[in-house]
Amino acid sequence: MKILIVDDSPGQRALLRELFAPHGHCTEAEDGAAALELFGQALEAGAPFTLVVLDVLMPGLDGHATLARLKDLEHRHNVSPECSARCIMVSCLQTTASIMRAQYEAGADAYLVKPVHAELVEELLRSLDLAPNPLLDGVPEDADVPA
How many CB atoms lie within 10 A of CB 62? Predict the structure, then answer.
């Protein structure tokens, strides 16, 4: 899995890289503009990112504006919705307004409140079908599994 980590704090990027690196190859961007450049290059190369881990509060383009532009890039490259990159927004903000804006207005797939912990990352990636679920190992795909 190709993962793009976007955060203006070098310390937070290092922490997020440590948490997400076991799940794929991580590339880092220090702000929204750098993220857009890397994301566009990956699309052009035919090797798009699978997951974007995006800080909400950044100078310049905040996480919401960055995500909107990432989705626009995918649209311009004719990426179908089912093939688009998943996005996890991270923030120290835990207000309902921030969470609702990220998920319903910006279109994030998930929202994590800092500090982020490895167990939560594992659980979230499984819920987004980006990591194997050990509870389903060996269960046939057509099996009726309770939710």
Answer: 18
Which amino acid is located at 39 in the chain?
Answer: F
pLDDT of 145 > 90? The answer is no
Name the CATH architecture for the domain at 2-131.
3-Layer(aba) Sandwich (3.40)
d(CA 103, CA 32): 18
Is residue 79 within 8 Å of 50, Cβ to Cβ? no
Q: What is the pTM of this model?
A: 0.87
d(CA 52, CA 109): 10
C-alpha distance from residue 26 to each of 42, 47, 77, 106 (Å): 13, 13, 22, 23
The better pLDDT of the pair 117, 25 is held by 25
Supply the DSSP symbol for 52. E
Compute the mean pLDDT over every residue in the chain, rounded to the nearest whole number: 89
Domains of the chain, by residue range, sit at 2-131
Cα 84 to the chain's mean position, in Å? 11
CA dist 143 and 49 (Å) reads: 31
